[in-house]
Structure to design on (123 residues):
């Protein structure tokens, strides 16, 4: 499923990564896997977003995990899932490969009926 929305700008931009354009595919493969996305979900993300991230040499990538997203975008379900994985990235053009404090990754535990949601907020 695909959706676009307008949301308040309450996203965190204190921790993240600076990634060179040529390393984006490897970065997202590893990062999404670390969070708990399966190969199909990861490949869908990469096939959709890598072609759209070609205008800059470096990107600042800030993860938005479920605690952040639940405050901004509410989800409703007709059948409540047993587990929910939500991860968006706020992505901005970066001028260089300056360091940004890296966040602690807390892997998702997939059990029972699981919902997985990924997305990007381009700035």
């Amino acid at each position: 499923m695909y959706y676009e929305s307008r949301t308040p700008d309450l996203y965190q931009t204190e921790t993240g990564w600076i990634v060179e354009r040529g390393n984006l595919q490897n970065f997202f493969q590893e990062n999404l896997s670390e969070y708990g996305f399966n190969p199909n979900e990861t490949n869908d993300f990469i096939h959709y977003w890598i072609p759209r991230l070609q205008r800059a040499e470096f990107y600042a990538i800030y993860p938005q995990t479920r605690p952040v997203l639940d405050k901004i975008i509410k989800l409703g379900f007709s059948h409540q899932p047993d587990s929910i994985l939500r991860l968006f990235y706020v992505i901005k053009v970066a001028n260089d490969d300056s360091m940004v404090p890296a966040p602690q990754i807390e892997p998702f535990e997939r059990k029972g009926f699981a919902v997985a949601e990924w997305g990007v907020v381009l700035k």
Remarks:
- The longest strand covers residues 83-94.
- The chain is about 25% helix and 25% strand.
- The beta strands are 17-20, 58-65, 83-94, 114-122.
- The mean pLDDT is 93.
